[in-house]
Amino acid sequence: MPIDAAEALAAAPRTGEISWDREDVLLYHLGIGAGVPATDPGELRYTLESRLHVLPSFATVAGGGPPGVIGALSVPGVDVDLARVLHGGQSLTLHRPLPPEGAATATGRIVAVHDKGTATVLVMRTEVTDANGPLWTDEARIFVRGEGGRGGDRGPSARPDPPAGAPDRTVERRTREDQALLYRLSGDRNPLHADPDFARAAGFDRPVLHGLCTYGITLKAVVDTLLDGDVARVRAYAARFAGVVFPGETLRIRMWRGARAVRLAVSAVERDDAPVLTDAIVEHA
Question: Is there a catalytic annotation at residue 95?
Answer without folding.
Answer: no
